Amino acid sequence: MPQPENVLVVFFGMIATGKSYLASTWARQHDLPYYNSDRVRKELAGLSPTVEQPEKMGQGIYTPAFSRRTYDALIERAAQHFDTDKQACVVLDGSYQSLEERDLLRKRFANQARLVFVHCFCAENVIRKRLEIRASDPDAVSDGSWEIYLSQKKRFQPVTEAEQVIELDTDAPIEDLVRKVTTEISF
Question: What's the CA gap between 15 and 90, in Å, rounded?
């Protein structure tokens, strides 16, 4: 079977690991469609992206049902690009914290796009510092906090050996990270 010409690049990892900054920078550099789970979640809720929703995990727009709706919307948006352009490259950005969620993407796009997963991580002290900076940023989209990070850390399913993933420690200059992603994807 010939390899699909579409490419789906999925930046994932826990909150404050730099995935959104890297994903949006990389997408912008290559002029690609970019969908962020925080933005889509708030859009589905009828909220402005920068409106704070400091709800606890599992409440409000962070219930499992609303999260499912958010991630299904991300899938639908990517699929729309692939349906209309057989050489599209789309960037998704979300936690994709369970193997099941990542496998759902693999199954959904198996015959439609080449999938590239970019796992973003960094040291905990870097995460804490980024969350502190984000808390005072009026333009921040994410509602992440240290408490949410700790909760997510308990649930995040590590990448398995069977998964083909680009692993990136995001505590590096953005230019180096963008270059590495571009080189690894052969884009």
Answer: 21
